[in-house]
Each structure stands twice: as C-alpha cells, then as structure tokens.
Amino acid sequence: MVGALASISKRIWGGRTPEEILSRRFKIFVIIGVLLVGVSKLLYLSGLTFPNLELVIPTLVVVGSFSPIAGRTKFWRRVTRYFGAIALISVFLADLIVWGFRPIYLFTWSGFLFAWLIGMRNKLSMFDKFKTLLGSTILTTAIAILIFDFWTGVVGWSLIHAPFWISLIGQIPFTFYHLSSLVFVPPLVGLGKLIARVKVPVPSAVRVKQEVGAKEGR
Questions:
Q1: 1 pLDDT above the threshold of 70
Q2: How many CA atoms lie within 13 A of 126 on its CB side?
C-alpha cells in the first residue's frame, strides 16, 4: 500500500529532469488555484465564511503574479495564460445558478478579472526569497481588493442602486472586512515556494593536478 502511494506520488509530483518536475508541479499549482477559487465561492454561498473573507482575489493575484510555466504544450500555455478566466468560470456559474443574472455582476465579474490582470503585472519568480515574494503579493492583493471594492461597491452600486456618497460610506466597513482576506496570501506563497523546491544536479569540480597524478600513477 505504502509502495503504491509512493509510486503515485512520484508520478504526480516528480519527473525525469528538473525542468519536467517544475512543469508538472506548476500544473498542479494552477489546478489548485482553479479549485480554490471555486471552493471559496461555494463556501460563501453556503454561509460558512465571514462576509468578504474570500480566497478568490488572493488566489487570482498570487497565481497570476507567478505566471508559472506549466509546460510547452499549446493546451497548458493557454491554461496558464488564461488562468484567471478559467478559474472564474465556477464563480460565474455559481452566481447564475443560485441568484440568476443581476446587473451588479457586470461589476463583480469584471472586478475579479481586474484583480487577476493586476497580479499578472508582477511577473515574480518562485525562486526569489519568501519575504520578497510575500511583501510584493500582499501589497498587490491589498491594491486589488481596494480597486475591486471601489469598482463594485461604489461605482457599480451607485450606478444601479444608491447615490455615490451613500455607496462610498457604506462600502468602507465592508472593505475593512475584505482586507482580512490577506491572511490567505502567506500560505499561497508558501505553496508556490514549496513547488519550486526542486533538486538540480550540480557537477562537482575536480582539481586538474589530482586528476593528472592519478593517471600517471596507473
């Protein structure tokens, strides 16, 4: 049983070369990102999470910031490039199935896409130091949340339901709640760093004199 699990783990997590291992692990990272976005939306709809505490924007920003190389095939290049749109399909479907179409969705859905595009501008490397990556992704996620809340809760709400100043004042406490979602950024960055930990064979240098002496001694 243990041997079978180890074999399956090696097939999923490992590979023959460092490049192949990284490619496979980045694919897993992208898939996890897609699942987290969907799960976050389902938890919110079921009432199991606090208001505005969500994984959608942190996941979109972190995965978008790394822009992982998930392989050279056309399929995975497209998955990586359009990760945000693919991940948000579950959000779109959940909203439509549970609530039906509402005009405010034009702002929330586009707001999520804005968050993903903001993350993609980072172009970070998973091989950088954890503190550097964490600081950059936390700042980017906070900016994405502020833009999302202003776009949806102030601009969108004022155009559809209430005057601008009422929407602005009413959105302030919800934005403070929403910023608590930054708590999800460290574990997401940590997962990215874990994925990037791949052993790379390094050739060891041999002193020329020792090598020549060994040949003469034969």
A1: no
A2: 23
* pLDDT at site 52: 83
**Distance between CA atoms of 185 and 61, rounded to whole angstroms?**
9
Question: Is this structure's pTM higher than 0.90?
Answer: no
Q: Which of 164, 143, 142, 146 is nearest to 155 (CA)?
A: 164
> At residue 165, does pLDDT exceed 90?
yes
How wide is the angle at C-alpha 73 spanned by C-alphas 68 and 75, nearest 5°? 85
Q: With contact defined as beta carbons under 8 Å apart, do 24 and 147 qualify?
A: no
Structural domain includes residue 28: yes
Do the domain assignments include residue 139? yes
Distance CA 192, CA 184 (A): 13
- For residue 101, give the 3-state DSSP assignment: coil
For residue 166, give its domain range.
18-198
